[in-house]
Structure formats: structure tokens, C-alpha cells
């Protein structure tokens, strides 16, 4: 039976549970010496808020956190203190995001039919959003939330001279969680650059943010941490995404 015949059979099958990989092995090099994952967001570490949101997603069956080797014990302690209900595993990350995600993927439950990837520094993700993307990934083989690019983007040459101006109507800013079906060879997928994943699978981007409102970004700098603090205190706790 060919792969696309198998895909057709999936359409009538209920969505299976999904293993969630949390990328948390970054160096926080743009945070001025502060580890962004342990930085407090409304009094609670950023990574804790991320994990608790994932823990409330109905379709996530387990959480696998990729952490720096020297931070694994601290991350494990944080996971324990978060009082999560789902099974959580902390694994050693690699020298790059790709290597970290691959290491975590190889530690996922071998029975998992879906694998998702989420950045540890994206604490404002909604459990409803996670479940929606898992459903989309099951239906389309791979899916990621995205927002249309509104800024003018320039392509520069090696000398930083403007080489071209792409049509922004074709550009989308892809965020996480990114979901794909585990039958695809994990090692092959994560050998690809992150931005080549969608090209390789040839699936349309799910601009779910058009229905759910603009998605909160991740924390990369101290300024973005401050912005998250304001966003949280200005009503995030009482907001609700509506599905159409």
C-alpha cells in the first residue's frame, strides 16, 4: 500500500496522542547573561509556564525536554516542582537546535504517531492552540502556526547590498508548536534546516493565527521578557482563543 493510500486511511481515524518535544537547550546569548528559561514571568519561571500550558493540552501524551547537559538536573528539578500530570523526560541536548530536537525525538515513545516541537521560551502558548495544531498535523502530515509577514523584507548579498525584495504576500513567519507525523524518518527530517521542513513536505502553511489572533512570540532578549510580563498582566490570563 502506497503512502498516500495510507494517508487517506488516516482521514477517518481519530487523532492519536502526540509526543511533545520542548527545545530548551539554547544558550540565551541575547539575554545579557540571564537564562531566559529560568527568568521569572509573573513570578514563575518561563519554562514552567511553557510546560504547564503543554501539560493542559488534551492530545499531548508525553513531554520530552532537551536541555544543556550542565542544566539537566536543574531542568529536572523545575519539571518536578511544576507538578505536571503528563510523563516528562529530560534528555541531553546537542550543539545546535537541530541536534537537540533530534536527540529528543529519538527518546520519544516509539508508539507515537505524531511528534510536535515547541520552544521552551514560548510560554504564552494556549493548550487549545497546541491541540488545534496536532489535529492539523494529523490531517495534513505536517503543520505549523504562522502569521503573514507585514514588514517589507529585503534579500541581501554577501556584501549586504540589497539583491531583491520578495513579494511579502508569499511570506509567513512560522512559529511553534510544529507538528509532523512520526512515520517520516526522524533522522532525515531533523537533518534538514528548520525552515526547509515545510518545503520538503510540500504542505500548505496553516495560518491558524488568522482565526485565533496574533500569536505571542518567543523570548529571545531581555526586552521581550519585559513585553511578555506586560502581556501577561494585561489580560492574557483571561483571554480565550475562539475557533471557527
Description:
- The longest helix has 14 residues, at 127-140.
- Mean pLDDT is 77; it is low at 1-6, 204-215 and 227-244.
- By secondary structure, this protein is an alpha/beta fold.
- The protein is globular.
- It has a 6-stranded mixed sheet, sandwiched between helices. Strands 2-3 form a two-stranded antiparallel ribbon.
- Helix content is 31%, strand content 20%.
- The chain contains 9 helices and 12 strands.
Large-scale geometry: globular
Overall average residue pLDDT = 77
Order of adjacent strands in the largest pleated sheet = 5-4-1-6-12-7
Number of helices: 9
Give the helices and strands as they follow along the chain. Answer: HEEEHEHEHEHEEEEEEHHHH
Q: Count every beta strand, where a strand is a DSSP E run of 2 or more residues.
A: 12
The major sheet is characterized as: 6 strands, mixed
Secondary-structure-derived class: alpha/beta
The low-confidence runs, each spanning 5 or more residues with pLDDT under 50, are 1-6, 204-215, 227-244
Radius of gyration: 18 Å
| Distance between the first and last residues' Cα | 35 Å
The percentage of residues in β strands lies in 15-25%
Set out the fold topology:
Blueprint: H1 3-10, E1 18-24, E2 40-41, E3 44-45, H2 46-55, E4 60-67, H3 72-81, E5 87-92, H4 97-105, E6 114-119, H5 127-140, E7 142-143, E8 146-148, E9 155-156, E10 162-164, E11 172-174, E12 178-181, H6 186-189, H7 197-201, H8 209-212, H9 222-233
Amino acid at each position: 500500500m502506497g503512502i498516500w493510500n495510507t494517508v487517506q486511511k488516516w482521514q477517518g481515524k481519530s487523532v492519536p496522542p502526540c509526543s511533545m518535544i520542548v527545545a530548551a537547550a539554547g544558550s540565551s546569548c541575547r539575554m545579557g547573561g540571564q537564562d531566559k528559561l529560568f527568568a521569572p514571568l509573573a513570578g514563575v519561571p518561563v519554562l514552567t509556564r511553557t510546560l504547564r500550558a503543554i501539560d493542559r493540552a488534551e492530545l499531548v501524551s508525553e513531554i520530552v525536554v532537551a536541555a544543556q547537559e550542565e542544566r539537566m538536573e536543574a531542568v529536572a528539578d523545575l519539571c518536578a516542582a511544576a507538578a505536571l500530570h503528563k510523563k516528562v523526560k529530560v534528555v541531553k541536548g546537542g550543539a545546535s537546535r537541530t541536534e537537540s530536537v533530534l536527540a529528543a525525538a529519538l527518546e520519544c515513545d516509539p508508539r507515537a504517531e505524531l511528534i510536535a516541537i515547541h520552544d521552551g521560551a514560548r510560554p504564552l502558548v494556549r493548550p487549545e492552540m497546541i491541540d488545534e495544531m496536532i489535529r492539523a498535523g494529523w490531517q495534513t502530515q505536517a503543520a505549523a502556526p504562522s502569521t503573514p509577514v507585514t514588514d517589507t523584507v529585503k534579500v541581501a548579498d554577501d556584501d549586504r547590498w540589497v539583491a531583491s525584495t520578495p513579494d511579502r504576500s508569499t511570506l509567513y513567519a512560522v512559529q511553534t508548536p510544529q507538528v509532523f507525523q512520526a512515520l517520516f524518518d526522524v533522522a532525515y527530517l531533523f537533518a534538514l534546516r528548520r525552515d526547509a521542513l515545510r518545503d520538503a513536505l510540500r504542505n500548505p502553511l496553516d495560518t491558524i493565527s488568522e482565526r485565533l489572533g496574533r500569536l505571542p512570540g518567543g523570548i529571545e532578549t531581555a526586552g521581550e521578557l519585559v513585553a511578555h510580563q506586560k502581556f501577561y498582566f494585561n489580560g492574557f490570563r483571561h483571554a480565550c482563543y475562539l475557533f471557527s
